[in-house]
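REQUEST FORM: STRUCTURE PREDICTION
Request ID: SP-0412
Submitted by: Lab K.M.
Chain count: 1
Length (residues): 137
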Amino acid sequence: MALPVYGDNRPSILKVDRQVAFGNAQSSSPNLVKNRLPKFLPAGPSSRREVYEVYWEAPVSGLEPGVELRFDYLQERSKQGKALHIRYPFRVMGERKAVFEVSEQALKNAGPVVAWQVSLVREKQLLAQKRAGRWEK
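STATUS: Completed
RESULT:
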């Protein structure tokens, strides 16, 4: 897929941050049960997940509803790639942050992520892309 011409006003993937997270998924609100009733929390080892935060920017003019951010990834013990995606049903303007998570079960089944590719797509047209690791295509 060829990238369309936008001049200086084109969408871009600014950066992708990878984190290894342990424990249950955290919410931004305080967890009263965790703070006051620890005996009711599940016992045992905490789960391990890989979390990818994708920072991207729409052009000044914005992107029409239906634009999709895809996170394709390859794992150590898998020959097939997997994909996660977010579709925006509204007009997108300015800087955005999207979070993709590779679950504990996926990591147990196929190992850690060894390569990834983030693509911003609208109606099968590639708008922006960033790759890392040993991504081959």
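NOTES: The helical segments are 32-36, 104-110.
Reviewed by: T.R.
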